Structure formats: structure tokens, C-alpha cells
Batch of 2 targets.
Target 1
Amino acid sequence: MTIDTFEKRFVKPRSGRTLIVGSRVYGDKLDRRALYKPGNVLGVDMLEGPGVNTVIDMEGCNVERIGTFDHVECLAVLEHSTRPWLLAANLERVMLPGATLFVSVPFCWPIHSYPDDHWRVSPAALAILFPSIEWIERRLVNQTVLEHMKIERHRVEGYPYFPRTETCGFGVKR
């Protein structure tokens, strides 16, 4: 199962105001704000750039300034947080009761910067990081076989190749 398949099968965002955490668009990355009703979605990131409405450190204590949300997405962000437990707690703080959460974080993937890469998270760790979420689904998902073959051909001799594996979760705030 890929992250796209996980999203199609399990992710049912609650309608209303949506928060996209880590919304800065790099290269051919999708601007996920386009998936939601214009004017009802806020893209936040630590860095200015395309896809970002508000620059904010979501680990900080001033997250109330962005308001509350019915749906939150946090895709490929937690590994870059120096204190992911604070980021997770603040996401729960801005979620309304009944709000939905879609999260993904690498479980197995090379270290990469933005501005740095600190953590890997298992499905069990999601429940610890987000104690107010009733999880509909938490699981490891892999890249496709085709992606694996392309990367395997280009790997550097002497370094092991680990297929990209993400921890994905979708749940509802109690």
C-alpha cells in the first residue's frame, strides 16, 4: 500500500477549516491547499515560500493566533521537528473536538534536511504523540515496486537501500 492508497482508503477529512502543516511547495510537490475549499484552508510552514500563507513555528506557544480547525494535515513534517511532542500537542490544541488528522512521517528513509532531520516514528508512536486522537487507521505504507526498482538501479555501491516506508495515520480528536 502506498501513501496515496492509504489516503484514498482511510482519509475522510471533516469539512470546514483546514490546516496544512509544512505547506511549503518544493519542486513538483503538490500544493495541498488546492485540495480544499479556497478561503477555508491555511498553509503554515517555518519558512516563507510558495504554498505558505503564514510563517509559524508550530512547536511554539503562540499557535492560538492561527485559530482552530476541523481538519489538519501534517505530512512529512514530524521528522524535522526538534521536539515533535510539542508540535503534536500544539496540533491537538488547534483542533476542534471531532476534527480529523491526517499524518505521515518517514519510518525508513535516508536523512534529509529542512533544516534538519531528527526522528523516525512508528505507528505505535503516533498514539503516544497524539493522545487525544482516536485512530481510524495507523500503519506502515511503502513506495511502489516501480519506484523501488528505479532507486535500486541508482543506489551508490556499498550503501544499503531501504525502500521508503512511511508511518501513516488518520484519526478524529476526541
Note: The domain at 3-173 is CATH 3.40.50.150 (Rossmann fold).
Target 2
Amino acid sequence: METKEFWQNVEASSKEECWPWVGFIESHGYGRLRAPKGRLVLAHRVAYEKANGCIPEGMCVCHRCDTKECCNPDHLFLGSQSDNMKDMKNKGRARSLRGEKSPRSKLTQEMVDYIRTSPNAKILSGVELAMLFDVGKATVYDVRNNRTWTA
């Protein structure tokens, strides 16, 4: 897509404000467009490239503003995937599926409370508790020692 045609799909205003992509928005909230050869690309990555040149391989284009459809080059910066995840976590946007909410969890909060506090659980071995709750003995050990299911 030519530069002029690209920017016609961006609602640009002052340098401080977000410039939303007004074209197609994907289900995760990011602007998308079709690049040469029919490949779909993220609009904010194209905006960064048009303003700053090529994006080094493996680098993410991150948003300072946390507005997924924003294409304002002043709001965009390069970072590794790790940088992007740290930025997301630092801004409180990381979705954490912990405890019962984790699709991999076999235990409920009630089971964890039993393992940690029940007088009966104190006299049972880790192997016995593991068999009782159909989990591995390492899971019971980790719960008992607060290595998992922490606040």
C-alpha cells in the first residue's frame, strides 16, 4: 500500500493524541491491512515502518498508549517479545489465569485449602493426598510449600 493511501486510513490529529486505524480491525482489536502479495499485516507495524524505516527481524512494535488501533508513530516503540510482555505486565494489562481459572488446573481452591490446613491432610503423606486428588505428588508438595496457588 502506498504511503498516501495508508495514511488515508488513519484518523490523524495532534501528535499527543492516538491516531486510530479506521480500516479493518481484527478480533483482538488491532488494525489489519493487506500488504503486497496478499499478506495480512498489522497497521501499527506499517505506521512504524513508514515513519522510521524497517523493523529489525524478531522485534515487536509496542504501544506507549496501549491503544491497539493507534498508528501514531510517536506512540510506537520497538521492543523484544519479552519487553512487550514486561510492558504489558507493568501496565496491569496481563491476563493471568491462576488457580481454578487456569484450564490446566485439576485442583479447586477448596482442595488447596484442605491440603494446607486440614488436620487430616497433615497426617497424610504427599503420595496419599496426590492419590486422593488425582494429581502428582509434586503438585501436593508445591501446594503445601506455597510454590503454587500463591496470592
Note: The chain has a mean pLDDT of 91.
